[in-house]
Every structure is written in C-alpha cells, then in structure tokens.
Write a structure and sequence with these properties.
The protein is of the alpha/beta class. It has three domains: 81 residues, Arc Repressor Mutant, subunit A, CATH 1.10.10; 83 residues, Periplasmic binding protein-like II (D-Maltodextrin-Binding Protein, domain 2), CATH 3.40.190.10; 99 residues, Periplasmic binding protein-like II (D-Maltodextrin-Binding Protein, domain 2). Helix content is 49%, strand content 22%. The chain has 14 helices and eleven strands. The strands form three sheets. Strands 3, 4, 5, 6, 9, 10 and 11 form a seven-stranded mixed beta sheet that branches. Strand 7, helix 9 and strand 8 form a beta-alpha-beta unit. The radius of gyration is 25 Å and the shape is elongated. The relative contact order is 0.14.
C-alpha cells in the first residue's frame, strides 16, 4: 500500500464510481479497478460493495477512509512546503466573523494586498461555530472568531479585544426601560453566533426569559431591523457606532464582565503555515504586538 493506492481509494469512495474516479485521476477505469483489487488483496478485506450504480465503502473501507484523506493532505502540505521559498504567493483561504470583517479587516486586507500582490486571498464569512468547523475540516487555513476557543486540535492567537454594547432603536433610553415593556425580540445572526449566545445571557440575567428571535445573514440587515424598532442586538461598539452617530440606533453600555470579548485567530496545530499565511497574520497582529516581536 502506498500513497498512490490511497489516492485512488479515496477518489472512488468520494465519487461513488470507478469511472468518475478515473476521470478525476486522468486515467482509465480499468486501471482504477485493478488498483482497488490489488489494495483489497494486500489488506485481505473487501473495501467496496460493488453494485450496478457504483461502489459503496464496506465497514473496512470506511475505517480506511480517514487515513487516506489524511495521507492526501500530508502529501499536499509536503508539496506546498517544498515550493514555499519564503515569498508569499499562491492561494490563501481564511475566514472571519461578519462583524470583524466590517470593523477590523478593511485596513488589514488593503495593507496585505499592497504588500503581497502575488497572493490570491479568499475570505469567507460565517459564525464562530461554522468557521471553527471549516478550520478543523481543512476547508480554510484559519479564521477570526469569538474567543475563547478551547479545542485540542486548534491553536488560538488573540488579535483584538472588543467592547460589546446592546443596540436598540434610537428612541430607547435604557435597557431597564425596554425590559419594563416586556421581553424584546432579539435580532441576530444564525445559530452558532457567539454574540447571539452572549445576548441571550445578558437578557436572562435581567429576567427576560425565552426571547423570540429574528435571524439575519448580514450585518446591514440586523442594524436596519433594530433601527426600525423590531428588536435588539449585541455588537462590538465600533461596528454599531456609525449607525448611532447617524441617530438610527442607540448604544447601551454593559458591565465589563458582560462587555469584554476577544477576537482570536484559530488554525490547526498540525497545519502547515505558509509564507502567505504568516505574512497575513503579521498584517493582522496589532501594531503594539508587532513592535514587541521586533525588539
């Protein structure tokens, strides 16, 4: 059994037929079939149930599949490491919270693009849960998420500290006054958003139980809905400040224990840190931290 055998096996398991695997691997179906049979003979177990519509992994095949995928990733990282000469280039896929993208990343992205034009950067937004899963599954190289993140396979670096504020319609004078009128609806991102969990805890601590919620996919949608008096939300002060200056919303400060939150960058501990990723993290790191590193 070698890396080539595992690559063929993984392709068949993922695509479901020998023919599709052959097309992806740029070979003929007879070669794929022969490689699978030789691998099964070597291991002494059938790896696929064959049927008229294709092939489905057996129990033994399902046990082998994670190792085949891991081997493929290691080979890909090995090729990238050999090709990486220290000059940032190629593709880089990272993730970010919607709020972090709006508040913190415009300057970072502009600086990075100007300094490293040979890098093709892909930025994907999502909730903390979605982004952590994407990093763990190797779909992105790292992500800015709400901390703390405690996972044995991830390394987390604190990048920014934010102050969360309760955001209401402009005419609301205080949170207490709002709650006296009844439990407000909460306007939030979809499930998995850490700010959403924080907001539910803030309201529960003040006796508001079981608030109804409205889910939105964009920051602009949330702010527009709150400005219209439909409900309340919880956001970093810097994100909501422009709408507050325009008089569209009101910001209500919270006690430090409820307001403080860290934005951390998470990546896999066993992942290859390319020159492109290292340079990106250097751009994102606060200037004070960069100065300390240079001393």
């Amino acid at each position: 059994m070698d890396a080539g055998d595992l690559r063929v096996f993984e392709a068949v398991a993922r695509l479901g037929t020998m023919g599709r695997a052959a097309a992806e691997l740029n070979t003929v179906q007879s070669n794929v079939t022969a490689r699978i049979r030789l691998l099964e003979r070597e291991l002494g177990v059938p790896l696929f149930h064959r049927h008229s519509r294709g092939a489905v992994p057996t129990d033994a095949g399902r046990r082998l599949l994670p190792y085949a995928a891991r081997a493929a990733r290691l080979l890909d990282e090995a090729r990238r490491a050999v090709a990486d000469d220290g000059c940032p280039k190629g593709s880089l896929a990272v993730g970010s919270l919607e709020t972090t993208t709006a508040l913190r990343l415009p300057r970072v992205l502009a600086d990075y693009a100007a300094a490293h034009p040979a890098v093709d950067l892909v930025l994907r937004t999502g909730t903390t849960c979605e982004l952590v899963a994407a990093v763990l599954e190797h779909r992105i190289e790292g992500a800015f998420v709400c901390g703390p993140v405690g996972h044995p396979e991830l390394e987390a670096m604190t990048v920014w500290e934010e102050e969360l504020v309760l955001v209401t319609a402009g005419g609301v004078r205080s949170l207490d006054a709002l709650l006296r009128a009844g439990t407000p609806k909460i306007v939030v991102f979809r499930a998995g958003c850490s700010y959403r969990q924080r907001l539910e805890a803030v309201l529960a601590a003040r006796g508001a139980v079981g608030p109804r919620l409205l889910e939105f996919g964009s920051l602009d949608g949330i702010l527009a809905c709150v400005a219209g008096g439909v409900g309340v939300t919880l956001l970093p002060r810097g994100v909501a400040a422009p709408a507050a200056r325009d008089g569209r919303v009101a910001l209500h400060a919270l006690p430090p224990a409820e307001a403080g939150v860290e934005t951390v960058f998470v990546r896999r501990r066993d992942g290859f840190v390319s020159s492109a990723l290292a340079a990106f993290l250097d751009c994102a790191r606060p200037r004070s931290a960069r100065a300390d590193a240079a001393d």
